[in-house]
Amino acid sequence: MNVPTQLLGLLLLWLTGGKCDIQMTQSPASLSASLEEIVTITCQASQDIGNYLSWYQQKPGKSPQLLIHSATSLADGVPSRFSGSRSGTQYSLKINRLQVEDTGIYYCLQHYSAPPTVIQAMT
């Protein structure tokens, strides 16, 4: 009876690619900055997720808006003062010359494996 169970376990592991839940750590959890400053928010992945990371901004009462996709690519219509970068498993969102309208909640989202992991930082 154990053999079919073990085979099923191996089959499921193979079908899912053997991926584990990926932990994301975003810092800082919150921050306060002055106008025109440079702000950087980082997300650290517990394992390699390639460029499967996006950054979102959410303003009060609004849906999250995509800022950066594929770790470094600026989404359409997003001001060029926003940029994304990657160094290994660390991902950064940089805002140059902070503006009043940049106030909000910022999320990083990994979509390398299911379930997707979303972490937020308030600014």
Question: Overview of this structure, please?
Answer:
The protein is mainly beta. It has one domain: Immunoglobulins (Immunoglobulin-like). Helices cover 11% and strands 39% of the residues. The chain contains one helix and nine strands, in the order αβββββββββ. It has one helix at 2-15; strands at residues 24-27, 39-45, 53-58, 65-69, 73-74, 82-87, 90-95, 105-110, 117-122. The strands form two sheets. A five-stranded antiparallel β-sheet has the order 5-4-3-8-9, with no helix packed on it. Strands 1-2-7-6 form a four-stranded antiparallel β-sheet, with no helix packed on it. It starts with a helix and ends with a strand.
- The second-level CATH architecture is Sandwich
Number of helices: 1
CATH topology: Immunoglobulin-like
Number of domains: 1
| Series of secondary-structure elements, N-terminal to C-terminal | HEEEEEEEEE
Terminal Cα separation, in Å? Answer: 56 Å
Question: Roughly what fraction of the amino acids lie in strands?
Answer: 35-45%
Using the CA coordinates, give the radius of gyration: 18 Å
Q: Residue share in helices?
A: 10-25%
Weakly predicted, low-confidence segments: 1-18
For the record, the CATH class is Mainly Beta
Count every beta strand, where a strand is a DSSP E run of 2 or more residues: 9
Q: State the strand order across the main sheet.
A: 5-4-3-8-9
Largest sheet: 5 strands, antiparallel
What is the CATH homologous superfamily assignment? Immunoglobulins
Structural class: mainly beta
Mean pLDDT: 83
Shape: globular
